[in-house]
Amino acid sequence: MSDLLSHLALGFSVAFTLQNLGLALVGCLIGTLVGVLPGVGPIATITMLLPITYGVEPTGAIILLAGIYYGAQYGGSTTAILVNIPGEVTAVVTTLDGHEMAKQGRAGAALGIAAIGSFFAGCVATLVVAALAAPLTRVALLFGPAEYFSLMLAGLAFAVVLARGSVPRALVMILLGLLLSTVGTDLETGAERMAFGWAPLADGIDFAVLAMGVFGFAEVLRNLDLTEQRDVVRRPIGRLLPTGEDLRRSALPIVRGSLLGAILGILPGNGAVLGPFASYTVEKRLARDPRRFGRGAIEGVAGPESANNAGAQTSFIPLLSLGIPPNAVMALMVGAMTIHGIVPGPLVMTRSPQLFWGVIASMWIGNLMLLVINLPLVGVWVRFLKVPYRLMFPAILVFSCIGIYSVNNSAADVLLTAGFALAGYAFVRLDLETAPLLLGFVLGRLMEENLRRALAISRGSAASFVQRPISAAFLALAVVVLVLAVLPAVRTRRKEVFVE
């Protein structure tokens, strides 16, 4: 306990510097803004802002990007409640009762309980991250290359199962990501792989180029297809502070939602998305009168909103302790850390304790900032809902092109980004989820490196992967997860869950 307190003290000393406080505030404001504006999302925003973070020291850069991520969870609830459009996929459930409350003139109470629940969940999740990160890191230090390779394989297996759409499609996207990660010059042999004699590909595909194209630009193209319809509630927002009865009804759902979200957020794949859905289901089943749900029950806002914020923060645990990104946003964080010369994994805690604990402490500060800036500024966020997309998207594209060009001063990077944008748009039209592709791309390079090291240590014997107990356990877990996913009964139930 004393170690934990001393680590947190170190983290707060880092997070409370003027620069890091400013970056956390900017991240929270940008995150809330992108959460409020449906169609942009934290993945596209973090991708677009990656080049800007090059001039910031690593701890500040990660604090800024983390603030955008959990700020978007807050902002998503505002549009879900006021416009009936979830700014983020994790806010989908909030539309069910939150918008009904808004139509009854209780939007303020819904927004207030969402902010209070998110703040409580953020505090719980910060403690969970701080408590679990150290033991997990100690375990991870026992891992060798074989264990890391098998762990990443298990992580990709979870990503396949938890991805939206069919299992074969998710598998194809992960394999495509792995394939793209091999493009460029092989550092061992010096041979070019799939560069086709084109010089810009000789150094491999830049992470920012792929992410910007597949997520940033493709998201803009996808939104151009959609008809702009916003059902903004006309009734007054009402008082923002919930009544005593509202708080009494919401207390237990907030606690349950925080715990559920914190646990599910750790899962590889996209566990943070499952939290709000699981919380809503639990609250509906525990309710004395389930018919209230879908008609403006405040428990249907309090539980899911707590769960999505807790899940967003605990998804940092696999990244910070093991170096394994559990979802696409965390894959972007891996990219950001790599760009700043930091190798994600268990050694981050020992080699860069200020970054590790500074980021964790900044989460609590960020949640406090979000509570303060969200409630008084609700009116401002509502005005942003009136900005037409035809003005917003061209500006995003121009600034993103400047950003991607500035990374290497290369016009070829902009061309490649445009190519990936078209590919990303085609994936969307074909109903292929792109998050597994990015996970495959990020983990592909790490898997290849660990596979080679493991084979070198075992003198070329692949048997070492099954002879080492921890590695064998991860491989068995991957096989079990994939076999379960293709069983007809499980496959049918999986489809039903995603439809729900």
From TrEMBL:
Which keywords describe this protein according to UniProt?
Answer: Membrane, Transmembrane, Transmembrane helix
Q: Which residues form the DUF112 domain?
A: 21-439
Domain of life assignment: Bacteria
Q: Which InterPro entries did the record assign?
A: DUF112_TM (IPR002823)
Q: Where are the transmembrane segments?
A: 20-40, 52-72, 108-133, 139-163, 170-187, 207-224, 258-278, 328-348, 355-381, 387-407, 470-490
Q: Which PANTHER family match?
A: TRICARBOXYLIC TRANSPORT PROTEIN
The protein, known as: DUF112 domain-containing protein
What organism is recorded for this protein?
A: Anaeromyxobacter dehalogenans (strain 2CP-C)
